[in-house]
Structures
1.
Amino acid sequence: MGLGQSRAWKVFFEGFWKNNALFRMMLGICSSLAVTNSVRNAVAMSLGVMFVTASSSTMVSMIRTIIPPRIRMAVFMMVISTFTIVVDRVLKAYYPAISAELGPYVGLIITNCIVMGRAEAYAISNPVIPSFFDGLGVACGYSFTLLILATVREILGFGSFFGLTVLGSWWTPWVIMVMAPGAFFVLGLYIWVMRTITKGN
Amino acid sequence: MHLDFVNLFIIFFASIITQNMVLANFLGLCPFVAVSTEIPTALGMGAAVIFVMCMTMALNWPINYLILVPLHVEYLQFLIYIMVIAAFVQIVEVFIDRYSSILYVSLGVFLPLITVNCAILGVLLIATLRNYSYVQGLVYAVGSGIGWTLAIVAMAGIRQKLRYSRIPKGLQGPGITMIIAGIMAMAFMGFSGMVNI
């Protein structure tokens, strides 16, 4: 069991850090910018992406021997869309406010290149349990980035964190931070910082 | 009738400038970073995006309002939309490969990339959320495609100029592209007082 656990952890960590989708491979930037104007939206999106990536990697891995190679992309799409529909229905039923704010971006989890990327690069040729941890690890690495971007943008843009005011009334909110240009600036600077830090390894 | 025309023009203008796909809605960013290195490539990709956006809108609107809504299975939208996009792109690829080699060389190489371009699915989902009519939807799709092309071609032009500038190492590539996109987004936002949808 000890060996099994350490293997799972290794796969998870590689997905989380070494193959970090955003700053190493530049995948999935579309949704990362749109939903990071508040921490609450970023958390909702992160949970959704984690669920979809982990489940679809598991599912693809389970059926990997019976997928005809020529139409594997279409099969991936079907699997991913199905899990995305689950996320959408759950959000609409239990958190209608968040669902309304995220708008079309829940559906756009389907075209988030990370999910498809993991299915194609890992799950199609690996057993079920490692695939699950690989999907989860990559999605956690993505969520980590989302949370950092959202924290910076919400604190600078509204002076609050998760809806709670953290900076007093002396703070003049930088409205641009919660609008489109702020998203690009924060992501650009974040990539710069991360690439400089991780240059060595 | 006059009012309808004004409304269509507002949708068209807003989808190009103030609600620009890339710079305001953050859709289609992956190819925006990857393909925006040369102006001719960017133009080819843009043309393919406009075409596919318009055609998938034309196909998906009837499917949604004539089949899914009457049967109360709107939750299948995501699945149906992405399937129609994938199938359509595949058919077009086969078709132009067979009939026009010139078109295939200039447009065909971009088509496989388009299936996973979030801008295409995004346009369909946004139009559905806003309950656009058929004509409004088509105008919105064409406008969004043009807006996307405008942004990617402008970015390619700027990046060609940047080739000989000295940029800090960690910022090269995607980093500087994001910063430029931010500045472009500010410029596009300058129009936002003019029209709103």
2.
Amino acid sequence: MNHPAIHIQGVHKNFGALQALNGIDLAIEQGEFFALLGPNGAGKSTLINILAGLIAPTAGSISVMGFDVQKQYQQARQLLGVVPQELVFDPFFNVREMLRFQAGYFGLGRENDAWVDEVLEGLGLADKAHTNMRKLSGGMKRRALIAQALAHKPPVIVLDEPTAGVDVELRQMLWEFIKKLNRDGHTIILTTHYLEEAETLCSRVGMMKQGKVVALDSTANLLNKFSGKHLRLTLGDVRLPHDVERLVRHVENGIYTFALTDMIQIEFVLSSLRASGIKVIDMQLNEADLEDVFLSLVGNVAVEQPLMANHHE
Amino acid sequence: MIDALSNRSGWVGPWTLLKKELLRFWRVSFQTVAAPVITALLYLLIFSHVLDKHVQVYDGVAYTEFLIPGLIMMSVLQNAFANSSSSLIQSKVMGNIVFVLLTPLTHLQFFMAFLIAAIIRGLVVGLCIYLVAMWFVDLTVANPWMIIAFGLLGSALLGTFGIIAGIWADRFDQMAAFQNFIIMPLSFLSGVFYSIHSLPPFWQKISHLNPFFYMIDGFRYGFFGKGDVSPVFSLLIVGASFLVLALITLKMLKSGYKLRS
């Protein structure tokens, strides 16, 4: 148990002139439920592809439970289950056949069938076991994709955006199953756009921006550091005083969201508005969440757009 | 759970990939076996109808008899190529090749699985044509070992070439170009339908540069005990070509060319 589940040391990756990864150092211990967050283009998928052996790093190394993903790729891949982000499938076979093949590639035979059944059951695929991959709906294909990554019962599981385009019911089911695997000792690494998911599931969070890890701490610590609050005021179409405007994080349909670091600022905002003759129609106060941390670390307008879009899906 | 490394056997992985490759073409055997058999039989029907009374290549061998081994071998070669190349290009375009790339399978195991599947597809198609053709013509067999040797080596050579094409091509139209501009001309101009001795000297020389010529000629030697060149020489050419292509393929796979870019 002395090796980290995943140990990333000085990983650089250049695509021509583009520096996709700019010196990543990261250790994820065995048994962790770890979230890797970051805007599009931060380098999360590049990092996962290097981990999975799908691309080679320009410099640096990654090991899985002590096995180098390049020099000892057979052991490293045996220990690793990666769910690809893209919805790919093999149109020639049904779900159970695909899972048996997948386990077989890892050297497992019929003795693994009980586990395959457990995965099918856990992901709600049991009644689709004999359905051809081609005939599955998008959500079902996503489940099958996850099942394939789990077919050889890997101790380290990487889920790259597993809930993209997945309905609420499956999300619940998926997370229950993944949480159970984590309780059983599997290490889980998750990348996601849904920050609430990372917040509720993961014990530790790494945030990436432009090929670097910009924050790495336990979820609780990160949230504590940003112990601010959200003040949502419904004001209508108004012109805010300048000193209040700088606190605005988001505006939509006359609803202004202020990011506050201190409760005293509430009084300041309200008195400022009153002094300018602006009426508060409605008011709401929320705790800061991982998204605030995320935005304050990696945030800029370009980042906010997809995040907001996700919230309204 | 951490014993994930201990409880596996070395043969299960590559065997599973081979089994998947075999099932892949067997599931659509109407297209992958029946169709090429029908095509070959149509060639046989038409050419033997037109030429049987007019052309004699070897003494005592009717044109139809002469034609059958060539047609069988041409189909073996084309289908061995088609199997590995189309399987690879499909899984690349669909993206499901990633499922194999994520596994501990070595590049040699990957190569062997695709190679053996291609050989089996080629030989199955060839055998089917042979069995159907036997209804029409009594074929002699002079040297069965030569038939087996050329059948195996030829399908291995084209299966390997198919792997190279499948790795190299990124789109279906590039693969079609491979088929139409390399495989088809080389197989049609290899002496399937004629003996190269009937060609003008210049074209005879050109034909000697075509590796398909040696495979067809050697395979045919197995039936009639006669050929345009020595079968041992042909066997050496085909064997050497296979070794060279196999080494190139293994190097491509090891470096991750196009697959792990």
3.
Amino acid sequence: MDCETCLPKLDACLDGELDLSDARLVADHLATCPTCARVGLARVQQKRAVSAAATTFKPDPAFRARIEKSIGVVKPNRWSRGWLPLLATVMVLVIASFFFLDLKRGQSRDQQVLAELADQHVMTLASANPVDVVSTDRHTVKPWFEGKIPFAFNLPDLGNSGFELVGGKVAYLSGSPGAELIFRIRQHRISVFIFDSHAMQIPVSANAFASFNVRSWNQNGLWYLLIGDLNQGDSEKLRELLKGAG
Amino acid sequence: MPLFERLYNFACWLTQDRHEAEDLVQETFVKAMKGFSTFQPGTNFRAWIFRILRNTFLTSRTGLQATATVSLEDESEEEILTSAVNTPESILLARLDWELVHQALAMLPVAHREVLLLCDVEEMSYAEISAALTIPMGTVMSRLSRARRALRTAIQGLQKE
């Protein structure tokens, strides 16, 4: 895919409207084209800015009470035959409201965390200096984090797995510091974020976000999130390697 | 009341007046209650109730004024696909601030504002937006693209002030 094909598809890709093969092509192009990656990042930021800026107006509790009352007035006659269907309708609406609001709250929390970390991953890919400690040696990368983050973690011996450690840097999620490790397999770069799971409970359950593959798990008090444009099999393989070192 | 706060926020953005928004939400719920039998189980409830609110707005005095004074450009998809390539967007997004985006959104025509809100705030799919606005999917895509470009232009304008 070239830039002229990629750019018009960026919005649909970020809106989750591209089919998997097109989304993969866009992601592959973004991974290799800094110009389009910058535009992609700007569009992600714009989407998030609109979402934040436009969720503004909260209804007054008195208004809610008034509208509930007015809906009650709609009832033609509380003793007529219309009373029972209306009551059933109200109950369905109330139950539906709990369902929708609960679902939305859970989803938006997951999506917020994923969006934040996906942004950091894209910024890393677009950066000329993606890592602060550049080394393929786990015994160099791990000690570099000492004193910079409030926990320690283990890194696996990647051996002949095909994965290579590129380096790492300090990342932040909701103000808490953690580690971002960059791995490479073939031309794909993968970010693995590690945070203290005692500091935050993050129930991310999605396996994909904005065409990236995602894996997350808890282990020994740490929360891991793996994100990148690698395939499902490689995602699982890297997760198993990291879990093995856990 | 399902989606009460979401509908209120959307109504405020459409009307840009809290009192009118309250009237609009109230009328929406009354219509939804009266017409609940017309809602087909298995179809999208959220798109259905947003459509009621939006149609109610369009037939209100404010809605008629807002839509009568703005003529949208030709919404052909082809034009959007080519113009997206040249959009100057590396621009301004480095230091977006909440107030600036809020102001820029308020400056957009209703047709652009509503499609942005449904996509980026309500996180509706293009199919849901198509159902809520009763426009074809192709128009959703082209209008969304145009709205995002208009927003960037508005933000740029505000940054220069």
